[in-house]
Write a structure and sequence with these properties.
Blueprint lengths: L6 H9 L10 H6 L9 H17 L2 H13 L2 H9 L9 H18 L7 H15 L8 H13 L8 H16 L2 H14 L9 H7 L9 H13 L85 H15 L16 H12 L5 H14 L13 H9 L3 H15 L25 H36 L1 H13 L2 H9 L3 H5 L12 H4 L7 H6 L7 H18 L3 H9 L2 H8 L5 H14 L5 H6 L1 H10 L21 H20 L1 H4 L9 H5 L13 H10 L5 H5 L3
Helix pairs in contact: 1-4, 3-6, 4-6, 6-9, 7-9, 8-9, 8-17, 9-18, 10-18, 13-14, 17-18, 18-19, 18-24, 19-30, 20-24, 24-27, 26-27, 27-29
């Protein structure tokens, strides 16, 4: 009583957090392993993990959640932040401490190690179920964080530290729903449950085994190379008509030094592509530190590359039907609809073709879900009510559905504000509220440190949003295809496709190799070792790493999101063509990383048929890379441009039909008022009169008045009941 400040500050003082003086960061220090008493980085991490599990068992997370809810509902802090002309770190001290502690707990408990105690493993499962269940005011913990994001983007709470909120939201969804390896296991179990054929390969393992291709050079780069050679008095040995052949699986030694290359080799291979054969995304979701470089091979030893294509081809049922329809029209003169078994009257080669197509036929879980949904829509009474499994993804979708468009728009606003290509506008949201100090820097060193911190801040926001959206799309697609389509359509309508293309319309090589970090300030290095003196030269030099793993991770996630949005959607593929994405994506091929190149080539493949014969003729190296790296559909004529499904007048109808199916699905499964229309009617007079009706306590006082008003005073036309209506 009588203390100034927010309600959360009072509670934090009782917990030893943010109370001022020496006790201000007592709880975070305890969570970080009491590093002042540790001698090595391993000891710091060990005791940090031990203390976090100890505090979780004592119920700290529940107390922190209560404090976070109090701070979110603190209208005084929100109104004062709205009125302030400039918001700084001081406006979000309590929130940042709370979110940092919660992030440390979620991330530490989430990661499983071999030496975990049995009680820690039980605590991990309990914490996972707790975060994914609607235990916090009837909704999962992730929805509380989504609410913080929307409040920040609507300018009702501009002091919220968005970087920490987004990181905690990403890790919470990663913990509750699972990463890509867990997703792959769930997909295998789902196919077994539906009695479908097993997956032809493990996509994670295939991508890890891929090797990067040499990036193609554009015509402008070739012209510049010619001009440079002419200035040096050398004649160019390369025509400008087309690209050279792909050198991914040739006999060239990739460990050979670039400077020692023979002059007969391609000049395209000596451009600014990142030379590195180490796969930086060994864990897909969590970027690990780069592994030690492999030992150099003798110059005479050749590298044995895998023979054949990396992916098994797939064929849809629709593709077989289309092939048979074309063949019957050609050889017989009529069709048999969707019949794929009758081959009477067709020549022997067609029989062999159909046999080969059926051998590689792949039925996805999404196709089964769509077919089942059509049956439920046609026969709602005879099939009964669908049994929906209460998975964490289902619970999260149900909670997000009422405000889904707001969540998507808020995330894309933050992604736009953090993109390196976006220009600062007066009406844009301020994402730097939790990085700018109260007093601006006055020295060159302070300015450089702040500049690095701001760039790093934006990169982390992009990383968190891209990983969050990709996880949501992949898990919702496995939960139900129409849940995935709902989020996808909201993203498309909110201009996610041009936003991602705008993100890549930059010098992607500079972004991938950016060095916006100060290694000596990284935890736990900074608390164990002596801090060297920071100078402007040391900050400008940065670290010695070749990639910025954070930015590479973000780029791959955004490319995968773009693939998810445009796959099998001709109208959205045409958006890629209209926005001239081909040259933007071709520049992204300069990054010599196999996973990133794979998803760029996928995006180029789906629009190749619309780019014209001249583009395909002058980009044969890219076409070869698509052939070698991207999965084949046996009767997909992606390289020729005569696809019947790509008729221009079907574009708008496709989105409208999809929207209609989505609304039917949501209405059938989640609209409780609609389900009352199908409730059976009781027509038995004795049953109806025998039902007990709950009446209010004071009803018998006004019963006579009600009888007079509702029964006796109402004229009844008895003759009308006998007439035929």
């Amino acid at each position: 009583r009588g203390r100034a400040g927010s309600p959360a500050r009072w509670k934090l003082e009782e917990l030893g957090v943010g109370g001022g003086g020496e006790d201000q960061f007592l709880c975070p220090t305890f969570l970080l392993g009491v590093f002042d008493e540790c001698d090595t980085e391993v000891d710091v991490l060990h005791w940090s993990r031990h203390n976090i599990f100890l505090l979780y068992d004592m119920g700290l997370f529940t107390a922190l959640l209560e404090l976070l809810s109090m701070e979110i509902d603190n209208s005084q802090a929100c109104s004062s932040a709205v009125r302030k002309p400039a918001i700084s770190l001081a406006d979000s001290t309590e929130l940042r401490v709370l979110l940092s502690i919660m992030y440390l707990m979620v991330e530490t408990v989430r990661v499983q190690t071999e030496d975990d105690r049995p009680e820690w493993r039980e605590a991990r499962e309990a914490f996972k179920n707790e975060l994914g269940s609607p235990l916090y005011n009837g909704e999962p913990f992730a929805l509380l964080l989504f609410t913080m994001v929307t409040k920040f983007c609507s300018m009702n709470a501009p002091h919220f530290p968005m970087k920490k909120v987004l990181l905690l939201l990403w890790k919470t969804i990663l913990f509750t729903l699972g990463g890509f390896e867990e997703l792959q296991e769930m997909k295998v179990r789902g196919r077994e449950r539906l009695c479908l054929t097993p997956l032809p390969e493990d996509s994670i393992k295939v991508v890890r085994a891929m090797r990067a291709a040499s990036p193609p050079a554009s015509a402008m780069e070739l012209i510049e190379q010619q001009q440079q050679q002419q200035k040096r008095g050398r004649r160019s040995r390369r025509p400008l008509v087309k690209q050279d052949s792909l050198d991914t699986y040739n006999e060239r030694d990739p460990f050979k030094n670039d400077d020692a290359r023979d002059e007969e080799e391609d000049p395209e291979d000596t451009d600014s592509g990142i030379e590195g054969e180490v796969d930086p995304l060994d864990r897909d979701v969590i970027i690990q530190p780069p592994p030690p470089p492999p030992p150099l091979r003798p110059p005479t030893e050749r590298v044995n590359f895998p023979k054949g294509l990396p992916w098994a081809p797939k064929v849809r049922e629709k593709d077989i039907e289309h092939f048979l329809e074309t063949s019957r029209n050609k050889f017989i003169g009529f069709t048999l609809g969707n019949d794929t078994e009758t081959l009477v009257g067709l020549p022997r080669p067609i029989h062999e073709s159909v046999k080969t197509l059926k051998l590689h036929k792949y039925v996805s879980i999404a196709e089964v879900q769509i077919k089942k949904e059509e049956e439920l829509q046609q026969c709602p009474l005879s099939l009964g009510e669908e049994e929906v499994e209460e998975t964490p993804a289902e619970i999260l979708y149900v909670g997000m559905l009422p405000n889904l468009s707001q969540y998507v728009i808020a995330l894309l606003k933050l992604l736009l504000a953090a993109a390196p290509t976006s220009k600062a506008k007066t009406d844009s949201i301020n994402i730097l509220a939790d990085v700018l100090p109260e007093e601006m820097p006055i020295t060159v060193l302070q300015s450089m440190k702040l500049g690095i911190d701001v760039n790093r801040h934006k990169e982390i926001i992009v990383k968190a949003i891209s990983a969050l959206l990709l996880l949501l799309l992949k898990h919702l697609k496995l939960s139900h295809i129409y849940q995935f389509e709902v989020v996808s359509q909201h993203l498309v309508f909110a201009n996610c496709i041009p936003l991602i293309l705008k993100f890549f319309n930059q010098n992607i090589m500079s972004y991938i190799s950016a060095k916006n970090s100060i290694c000596v300030l990284d935890f736990p290095h900074c608390v164990v070792h002596e801090m060297p003196e920071l100078t402007a030269e040391s900050l400008e030099a940065g670290d010695c790493s070749q990639f910025c793993w954070r930015n590479l991770f973000s780029c791959i996630n955004l490319l995968r999101i773009l693939n998810k949005l445009t796959k099998w959607k001709h109208s959205r593929t045409m958006m890629l063509v209209v926005f001239k994405s081909a040259p933007i994506l071709k520049r992204a091929l300069k990054v010599k990383q196999a996973m990133m190149q794979l998803y760029v080539l996928k995006l180029l493949k789906i629009q190749t048929k619309y780019l014209g014969r001249q583009w395909r003729k002058s980009n044969m190296k890219t076409m070869s890379a698509i052939y070698q790296k991207v999965r084949h559909r046996l009767n997909d004529d992606w390289a020729y441009g005569n696809d019947i499904d790509a008729r221009p007048w079907d574009f708008q109808a496709e989105e409208c039909a999809l929207r209609e199916n989505i609304e039917k699905f949501n209405s059938r499964r989640y609209d409780n008022s609609r389900n009352s229309d199908f409730t059976p009617v009781d027509n038995c007079l004795q049953s109806i009169l025998g039902q007990r009706v709950e009446l209010p306590e004071d009803f018998h006082y006004s019963y006579e008045i009600w009888l007079e008003r509702e029964v006796f005073s109402q004229p009844i036309q008895w003759e009308g009941l006998l007439q035929n209506p």
